[in-house]
């Protein structure tokens, strides 16, 4: 299966990425050659999606190594990029893995080695997405599916996680259409997932986030499937805000709710969801969009970018290594430890 577009390229000495804030109106590539520009691109969601953030974290180390391949500069760059957004674990672990891979080399080899690491990381990610899609087919019931946010090519550089499963189900003739939440406040579903589905020829039905519970209880979808930014060992999962509401509605309606994510999303440092750091974003993002304002000035906003769905509401976590089912603790740890032994090789 093929991703509908390329969204990321490692062209030493720059990282090239599609600017996701301009889609779907404009397909504009950013050329990033310094850490300040990379930090701004991550913070403002020009690049986003947990697996793609991991790739960008690794590219940050490569960019830093071009300027100063010394131990301190590489370690500092990995730490600095890893701090830009707190919830997606792979931003920090991708940067740290790239740093660890190059620190064992002579300084003059490090920049080239870091760019090679990035290219291999992308290839591995693409293979993982394919495996997630194959494994997802084994558990996803036939029928139409609801998804949230963007978990496609724009979020991984491959065919996507949840969206990869949806692509595979469509290719197998097991779903006729994909329901897509708009995903407020930044409209990742309405702008990005719909863009990918149109490019792939998969019928898409867009709904306001506020209509999701009505859709789920209407009997129109046989499953809900989303991605993840960080998964605790007990299966509690942080994903784009609104995911928890979908899982609660799905539990009420008896519709299975699935997470699709690479094993690298599991954080063995989080025993449960209370340990997952949640990013809060500005009031401006809720009160307007792209320079347009619809709320009066001077109001406060409560704007978490993510919420945590308890593992007990998740029918299965679909990974490239296999399917984890509740109770999650030992199964998730085993999947993580197996995969961690191969990270960066
Ligand atoms: C395969 S992407 C999985 C998640 O990163 C995705 O669902 C999500 O929540 C993205 O949030 P974002 O704030 O757009 O980076």
What is the H-and-E element order? EEEHHHHHEHHEHEHEEEHEHEEEEEH
First-residue to last-residue Cα separation: 24 Å
- In total, how many domains does the architecture comprise? 2
- Mind telling me the C-alpha Rg? 19 Å
Catalytic activity: 5-(methylsulfanyl)-alpha-D-ribose 1-phosphate = 5-(methylsulfanyl)-D-ribulose 1-phosphate
Site (Transition state stabilizer): 149
Pfam family, one: IF-2B
Protein name: Methylthioribose-1-phosphate isomerase
Explained architecture:
The protein is of the alpha/beta class. The protein folds into two domains: 8-126, Four Helix Bundle (Hemerythrin (Met), subunit A) (Up-down Bundle), CATH 1.20.120; 131-340, Rossmann fold. Helices cover 43% and strands 15% of the residues. Helix 2 packs antiparallel against helix 3, helix 4 crosses helix 5 (107-139) and helix 5 crosses helix 7 (162-171). The mean pLDDT is 96. The protein binds 5-S-methyl-1-O-phosphono-5-thio-D-ribulose. 5-S-methyl-1-O-phosphono-5-thio-D-ribulose binds next to helix 2, helix 6 and strand 9.
SSE blueprint and pairings:
Elements: E1 8-11, E2 14-18, E3 29-32, H1 35-43, H2 50-67, H3 71-82, H4 89-103, H5 107-139, E4 145-147, H6 153-156, H7 162-171, E5 178-181, H8 188-200, E6 204-207, H9 212-217, E7 223-226, E8 230-231, E9 237-240, H10 243-253, E10 257-260, H11 283-287, E11 288-289, E12 292-293, E13 306-309, E14 316-319, E15 322-324, H12 329-340
Parallel strand pairs: 4-5, 4-7, 5-6, 7-10, 10-14
Antiparallel strand pairs: 1-2, 2-3, 8-9, 9-13, 11-12, 14-15
Helix pairs in contact: 2-3, 2-4, 2-5, 3-4, 4-5, 5-7
